[in-house]
Amino acid sequence: MTTLRISHPAFSGAKRDETIHFYRDLLGMEIVLRQPNLDLDTEEHLFFHVGDDNFIAYFVPREGVESTLTPAQSGSGWCDHLAIDVDSSTLEPAAARLRAAGIAVEGPIDRGYERSIYFRDPNGVTIEFLAWITPVPAGLTQATVIRRAQALREARGAVFIEDQDVRTAIAELKAG
């Protein structure tokens, strides 16, 4: 079997209107599917387009239906966070926009080869927006660059992949 990519994570949330507002209006994601949940008629199935044919699915209560779900939390058996790639030029404006909307934002935090901000959606799911310091150029995949950067990191005895590993990996991969 060969896997292609993650199509979508699917979350369950208690806050229908807030979820739609958050992903559509604050984060700018288009709702490409909105219909009753085929498996549970008290829920609505939302499909938000993240970009590049990647999606976030949400099952939320239909209008007029009360939910008994508790907010999400990190830990065993829960989703720790959902990471979404963004262009580096949008990281700071996204943090400012979220803060202006009253949403607590942690970061930006330097993660070695990327910078990240963290915030929670209305259902308590932690979202990470991450931007590569050195973007992966056209013709290369993130997986190829990370794989090579990992080998470079190990060869130099470092604990984490740094941007220097990514830049070297890209140069080597482009050179063939």
Features:
4-stranded mixed β-sheet; alpha/beta; 2 domains; 2,3-Dihydroxybiphenyl 1,2-Dioxygenase, domain 1; 176 residues
Structure write-up:
This protein has 176 residues and is of the alpha/beta class. It folds into two domains: 10-132, 2,3-Dihydroxybiphenyl 1,2-Dioxygenase, domain 1, CATH 3.10.180.10; 142-175, no CATH class. The protein is 29% helix and 28% strand. It contains four helices and eight strands. A four-stranded mixed β-sheet has the order 1-4-3-2, covered by helices on one side. The chain has a four-stranded mixed β-sheet with strand order 5-8-7-6, with helices on one face. A hairpin with a 6-residue loop joins strand 2 and strand 3. The chain starts with 9 loop residues before the first strand and ends with a helix.
What is the gist of this entry?
This protein is α/β, with parallel strands linked by helices and 176 residues long.
SSE order and pairing:
Elements: E1 10-12, H1 16-26, E2 30-36, E3 43-51, E4 54-61, E5 82-85, H2 88-100, E6 106-110, E7 114-120, E8 126-132, H3 142-155, H4 163-175
Parallel strand pairs: 1-4, 5-8
Antiparallel strand pairs: 2-3, 3-4, 6-7, 7-8
Helix residue percentage: 25-40%
Enumerate how many helices there are, as a single number.
4
CATH fold-level label of the largest domain:
2,3-Dihydroxybiphenyl 1,2-Dioxygenase, domain 1
Mind telling me the CATH superfamily name of the largest domain? 2,3-Dihydroxybiphenyl 1,2-Dioxygenase, domain 1
Q: How far apart are the termini?
A: 28 Å
Name given to the CATH architecture of the largest domain = Roll
**In total, how many domains does the architecture comprise?**
2
Low-confidence stretches: none
Characterize the overall form. elongated
How many strands, what sense, and barrel or not for the largest sheet? 4 strands, mixed
